[in-house]
């Protein structure tokens, strides 16, 4: 495999850049600040590779070397690299609870890195909404013109969820566009890891979602049983069918909650983040659960139905108690 010194001998010593949207002061300060922040925790492996693509792309440079992709990037044919900055790798490490060294040792590192590379030289001014075939043949990149959510009102091109913060850095035959996130293809990395405290917190997604699902199940069951037997909700759930009721509560709570603690291969149990999951979008492809159907049966609709069911159960119990325990239906 070619070394970083060999690569440096093959590339132009001049690096040309064009920033996307930040003001001139931010253009200079941001890369320096990011490089300084990473320098405090840079490992020897990352430090040795820092000059491969640039000091602010030291982790990506180390990943290219670790995946033995230096030769593939220096074949003499022009390529475009959507390059995650060191800050982007730091963000990925924090979200996935992995160290930089563990990122470099991922078994599918080649698939992840080739997902960032497009054949041919694509300048920033030539980027348009649509798909670009990457060297990872299974998954193309998607280019859209979006507003950065974390740094409004930064108007930018968005590549598969990552904002392009700098365009047209030229290193040898490579056209480099710096992005603020590592672009993981579907099934290539775990979803963001959440602690039980985050999932079960009052402002977390789980309490209301799980209670809403239990309420919808309980309300429907109660109405059907009242019609069939003439027994009130309290008589059914706390007397005749307490065992079945308790088992249902545990089963539905377990099925809703446990996946959030594994988040395997990019899956997320939070219904409000499923639409943004690349893995789930791949799962939905070709299924009856189309994008149009997901807009109708959305997490917001489920949340509204859950709230209505919770109000319905409380109202049913109150009315039946006022009627002296007599079933309403």
Automatic annotation (TrEMBL):
Domain FAS1: residue ranges: 44-183
Region described as Disordered: 1-26
Keywords: Chloroplast, Plastid
InterPro entries (alphabetical): Adhesion/Biosynth-related, Chloroa_b-bind, FAS1_dom_sf, FAS1_domain
PROSITE patterns for the chain: FAS1 (PS50213)
UniProt biased composition (Low complexity): 12-26
Gene Ontology cellular-component terms listed: chloroplast; extracellular space
Highest rank taxon of the organism: Eukaryota
A Pfam family hit: Chloroa_b-bind
Subcellular location: Plastid, Chloroplast
Full protein name: Early light induced protein-like protein, with fasciclin domain, chloroplast
Organism whose genome encodes this protein: Micromonas pusilla (strain CCMP1545) (Picoplanktonic green alga)
Native organism taxonomy: Eukaryota, Viridiplantae, Chlorophyta, Mamiellophyceae, Mamiellales
């Amino acid at each position: 495999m070619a070394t970083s010194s060999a690569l440096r001998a093959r590339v132009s010593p001049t690096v040309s850049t064009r920033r996307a949207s930040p003001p001139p002061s931010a253009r200079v300060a941001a890369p320096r600040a990011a490089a300084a922040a990473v320098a405090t925790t840079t490992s020897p492996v990352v430090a040795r590779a820092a000059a491969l693509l640039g000091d602010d792309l030291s982790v990506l440079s180390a990943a290219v070397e670790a995946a033995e992709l230096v030769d593939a990037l220096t074949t003499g044919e022009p390529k475009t690299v959507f390059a995650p900055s060191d800050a982007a790798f730091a963000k990925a490490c924090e979200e996935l609870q992995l160290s930089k060294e563990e990122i470099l040792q991922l078994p599918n590192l080649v698939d992840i890195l080739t997902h960032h590379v497009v054949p041919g030289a694509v300048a920033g001014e030539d980027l348009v909404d649509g798909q670009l075939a990457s060297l990872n043949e299974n998954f193309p990149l998607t280019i859209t013109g979006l507003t950065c959510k974390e740094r409004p009102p930064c108007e930018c091109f968005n590549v598969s969820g990552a904002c392009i913060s700098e365009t047209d850095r030229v290193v040898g035959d490579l056209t480099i566009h710096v992005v603020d996130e590592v672009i993981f293809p579907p099934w290539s990395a775990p979803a963001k890891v959440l602690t039980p405290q985050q999932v079960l917190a009052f402002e977390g997604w789980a309490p209301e979602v799980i209670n809403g699902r239990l309420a919808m199940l309980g309300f429907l069951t109660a109405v059907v049983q009242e019609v069939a037997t003439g027994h009130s909700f309290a008589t059914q759930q706390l007397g005749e069918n307490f065992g079945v009721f308790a088992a249902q509560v545990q089963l539905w709570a377990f099925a809703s909650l446990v996946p959030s603690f594994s988040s395997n291969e990019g899956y997320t149990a939070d219904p409000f983040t499923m639409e943004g999951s690349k893995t789930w979008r791949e799962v939905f492809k070709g299924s009856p659960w189309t994008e149009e159907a997901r807009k109708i049966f959305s997490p917001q609709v489920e949340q509204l139905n859950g709230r209505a069911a919770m109000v319905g159960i409380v109202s049913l119990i109150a009315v039946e108690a006022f009627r002296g325990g007599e079933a309403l239906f």
